[in-house]
Amino acid sequence: MRLTVTVNGERREVDGLWEGESLLYALRERLGLPGSKNACEQGECGSCSVYLDGTLVCSCLVLAGQAEDREVQTVEGIAPDGALHPVQSAFVETGAVQCGFCTPGLIVASHDLLRRNPRPTDPEIREALAGNLCRCTGYEKILDAVRLAGERILETQTAAQAGSKQVCDTSLGGAV
Amino acid sequence: MRTTPLPRPAPAPVQRPGVVGETTTRIDGGPKVKGEFEYSSDLWADGMLWGATLRSPHPHATIWSIDISRALALPGVYAVLTHEDVPGRKVYGMEIPDQPVLAWERARYQGEAIALVAADHPETARRACDAIDVAYEVLEPLSDPERAMAADAPKLHLSGNVLRHITLRHGDQAATADVVMTGEYEVGSQDQAFLGPESGLAVPDGDGGVDLYIATQWLHVDRDQLAESLGLSPEQVRLTMAGVGGAFGGREDLSMQIHACMLALHTDRPVKIVYNREESFFGHVHRHPCRMHYEHGATRDGELVYVKARIVLDGGAYASSSTAVCSNAACFACGPYNVPSATVDCSVVYTNNPPCGAMRGFGAVQVAFGHESQMDKLAAALGIDPVELRIKNALAPGHRLPTGQVVREPAPVAELLERLRAMPLPPDASPGPRDLRELPGGVSNTTHGEDVRRGIGYGVGFKNVGFSEGFDDYATARVALSLDGDGDPLVSVHTAAAEVGQGVVTVQAQIARTELQVERVAVLTADTQVGSAGSSSASRQTYMTGGAVKMACEAVRERLLQRVADHAGLDPFDLSLAGGAVIDSRGETVATLAEALVSAPIEETVEFHHAETYPLDENGQGDAHLQLAFSAHRAVADVDTRLGLVRVVELATTQEVGKALNPQALDGQIDGGSAQGLGLALLEEIQIRDSQVLNASFTDYLLPTILDMPPVKKQVLEHPDPDAPYGLKGVGEPPNISTPPAVVAALRSACSRELARIPVRPEQLAGIDEPRRSRPPAPGSRGPAGARPTRS
Ligand code: FES
Ligand code: FES
Asked: Which DSSP symbol is given to B356?
C-alpha cells in the first residue's frame, strides 16, 4: 500500500505499507517520527496523541490509510526545530517530566486544551487530560505545567495585542 | 566483521546543574518534550528484523513437541528458534537461575516463552508465531500458595515449592498482653505498568558477539545473564542504555534481552523486539500477592507487647527476586514501632501463577497494609486516637528492630506523625449543591451528595535502602576533569546507573558540580564500558552511584591539588578549589583550572561500597540492613456508601529524606509513589483465576488517571544520616508504602467496614460482601464513649 500524507507541514509519501498498519506505526517506523509513543496501542493511554486535520486523536486507533491526503501534526511539529513551545518549556521547568514516555501525548493534549481555553480551571485540566496516563508523576506537576503554560500564553497574547493591535499568531507555535 | 553500523548515542549534552540541594531541571527534559528522546522502542537499524515471542496459553502444561516447519516456510520469516537453539545456559534468573530462556518439557505459567521468530515485519512475525504447532498436555495448575506448601502438593521445581521461609523470633516468645487483636489481610497483585514497553535492539558484531541497546534497571546483571545463556564471554556482550520509559522494579529481570540477542546472532541481522501492552503484562514479574495473619498484643494503655505474624507470598512460577522480597516482608512486618517481642513466619512459594518479583516498596508495601490495619483496629479497641497510638509506640534511634538490629539516627517516626497531624485538613464539603466533579462517581452523576461520607486515615511505613543481608553492594564511577575545545573546564561523569525517570543523571551532574566547583558537566550514556552501578532499585541509586561520583570527584580533586602543589612547591593541604581556580589558605589564586589542566586531564575511577550488612540467622536475627527510610501519609476520602464509589480528596505526607539533593525531583518521587500507592489501595490488580490472567490490558487493569489523583501536600524532614553521602536517605519507595494503609483507613472511617483486602472494591465499600463493624473513632477524637479493651 502507498500512503501520501502531510506531516508537520511536509508532504510525505511512503510505499510498501501493510494495510493493517496504524497511523502510529507508520509515523514511528515508516516516517522516522518516533516521538508519538506506543504505551498501549489500545486507545487507553494517550501517549500516541496527534492532530489529524486539527482534531486530537489516538494515532494507535487510526489506520494509516485513513490519513491518506490528510494533515497530521505530531509532537515533533509543535514547535520549530530547536525551539520549545510554552507548553513544552512549562513541562520541563515544573518537573512534569520524569521518564517522559507519557510526555509527547500530554504535550499534544495540553496544547489542544490551551488553544481552546488558555485559562482552564483545575477541573477542566483534569477533564481534558483524563485520557492521558502517566505512571511516574502522580499528575501534580502536570497540572502545574498546564497552569504555567496557560499563564504564559495569555501574557504573550496580551502583550502582542497591546503592542500592535493586530491579530497575532497566538504564540501557540505551529497550532493547526 | 561488523556489517551494520551501531546506532550512535548523541554526544553527552553539557549541563549547567545547580549544586547539591538546588532544584535543577532535568537535562533530558528538552528532548523528552520535543519527542526526540530515544527510548528503547524507538531504535532502528538498517536491515533490521522484528522479533516476536510465542507464549504458552496454559499456566501449567507438559510440552510434548514443538513443530516450527509451517512457521519457517512463511515468506518474510528469517528464523524460528526454540530451547534447542539456546547456545549457553538454558535457564536464567538474578538470584536463582530457574527460569527457562525458552520452555522445554513443561510450561509453568500462562505467558511463558516457548519459541521465537524473526521476520521482516512485526505482523509477519506474529503470524509465524501462530503457525508454530505446540503439542501441550494441559495440567491442573497449582494456583493456591497455601496449597502449594502442603506436603502432598505436586512439586513445580525439584527444590520443592517453598522458595524461602524466614523464621523470626525476637524477645519473649511467651509474652502475654492485656489486649489481643487479630486480623487477616490480603493484598492483590499489582503491576508496575511502566508506560514504555519492554523493548530493545540487538546488533550482531560479525565476530560472534553482540551489542544490545536496552531499557533496563541494571546493565551489568543483564550482561552477565546474557553472556551465560548466549555462551559468550562478558566482553562479547556489550550493553548500552536506551531511553527507559519507567521501571518501578519491573525491569530488574530479563524480558526480551536474551531472545533478541539469540535472533540477532542467528540471523546475523539487527533484531528489534517491542512488546505490546498485553505481552508486557506477561513479560515481566509483578508485585507479590500476599496473605497475612496478624496478632498484636498491647497493654491497656496502648503499649505494644508483642506482634505475631504469619505471611504467605505467592512467588508464582519462577524465583526472580522473591527470596529478598520475603526477607523484607519478614523484617518490616511489625512496622516502624518499638516491638519488644516478635514472632514472624514468612514464606514465599512457587505456584503456577504469574512470576512475582520486584516492585517499588518490595515486600514492605504488603506488610504495611497489614501492620497499619492492625494499629487502627487496636486503637479502636483501646479507645485511643490512632495517631496517638502510633506515636506512643514509634520506633526511635536506639530501639531494636525485630531482627535485633539497633536503629540509628535519624528515625523520626513520631515527628513525622506529629507534623503530618499538624498539617491543615482540606475544608469540609460546602453545604448546598455540589459540583459533580467533586463527588465520588464524578460526572457519571451517581450522587448529589446523599450517602456520601468523609473519612480520614493515617499510615506510616518504612523499609531498607540499598541491598541487604550481606550482599556486597557497590557502584562504580569514572570522573574526568579536562579542558574542552575552547579551553573551558568540563567534568565528564561516566557510570552505568540506569536513568529510569527518577533523575539520577541530573543528580550525578549536581554532585560533580558541587565537588569540583566546575559549572559544566557532561554525564555520559550509561553502558557496560564502565563498571557496574548496581540496580536502580531499593531506593539506592542516589546513595550508591551518587556516593561513587562524589568519591571519584574527591579523588580527582586530590590529584589536582597535588599537581598544583608540586608545581608551585606548596603543601597540597593548604590548597582548595573555589570558583574555577585552585586557591591557597589566604584565598589567593595559585592556578586557574585552565592552567592546572593544560598539561593533561585528570581521570579517576572508583568503586563505592556501602557499609557491610550481615545475613539473618536461623531466628531471623542480624544486622541485615544499611539504612532505613520512613514516610507517613494522611488520606482524606469521600465515599458514596451506597454505591461504593470513592473520591480521594487529598493526600498529605511527611518523609524523612536526610538531605534533598534536588527538591523538585524529590517532590516528583513522592507524588509518583503516592499515586502508585493510591492505585494499589483502590484500583490496581492483576486479576487471576485458576492461574489465568483476566485483565492484561490498560482497558481492564485500571491505573489512576488525573481524575483519580488528589493534590498531594508534602513536607520533608532533613535530619542528616551521618554515614550517607550528604546525609541523604533513599526516597523512591517509602511513599508507595505508607499511602495504601492511609487510604484504606480513610475509607474505613467513612463507611465503617473491615476492608481487609486491597485493592478495595466497590462491593466491599457498599457492604455487599462484608459485614459492617462498629465505627472506629476518628483521628483527633477521644474514641467511642465507654470503649473498653476487648479480647478477640
Ligand atoms: S498508544 Fe494509543 S492510546 Fe495508548
Ligand atoms: S513521566 Fe513516566 S509515564 Fe509520565
From this structure: B
